[in-house]
Every structure is written in structure tokens, then in C-alpha cells.
Amino acid sequence: MSPGQxxxxxxxxxxxLLVLFLAVTLVKLGRTLDEATVAIRKAHKNSDPLFxxxxxxLTHVNTQLERVDGIxxxxxxxSGNVSALTSLxxxxxxxxxxxxxxxxxxxxxxxxxxxKAAVETPGKHSRxxxxxxxxxx
Length: 137
Fold this sequence. Notes:
By secondary structure, the protein is mainly α. The longest helix has 118 residues, at 3-120. The protein has one helix at 3-120.
């Protein structure tokens, strides 16, 4: 055998080992892809009920949001009505009520001041002017 033939045999052996290595790798890759295909099928079968439930949930949420929108609109209307009622009350009763409160405060203050003056100077209002304590003029 010549050195060229030995080199060709070594190269052929290395090529066979390379082919065997690639064949084992491809078989393992095939099994992995089969398992991935099975997992994807199971996920697809299980995702249909999940999507149906999510769709049902979104429908319920949209219904509740429509109700909340109605409640918010009603609350806005009530708020406007209360504001208008408050303005009306202030316009019709606010001014006279403030005047009446001021009058009652002024009267009570005047009565207190008069009573205080009567207590401080007793008998001042009991005698008639021009008369003396002792009797006639």
C-alpha cells in the first residue's frame, strides 16, 4: 500500500464517522421536532377553550363597562341638578336669610348691651328725671 492509499483510507474512515455523527444528530433532531409538533397540537387543542373563555369574559366586562357608563352619566346629571338647585336656593333664600341672621345678631347684641348697662348702673332707669331721692323739689 502506498502512502496515498493509506491517506485515502483514513479520509474514507473519517467521512464514515462524520456521516454517522450527522445521522445520529439528525435522528435526535427529528425526535425533538416530533415532540415539538405534539406539544404544539396539544397547546392548540387546549387553547380553543381558553380563547372562548377569554371572549366570554371580555363580553361580560364590556357589559359591565356599559352599565358603569350609564351610572356615570346619571351621576353627572344628578350633580348638575344639585348644582342648579344650590344656585336657586342661594339666589332665592340666601340674601334674605343672611339679612335675617344679621338682624337677629344685631338685636341680640343690643339686648345684651342694654342688659349689661342696666346691671352696671342699677336704678338709673327706675327714677324719673328731675326728682330727688329725698322727696319734693
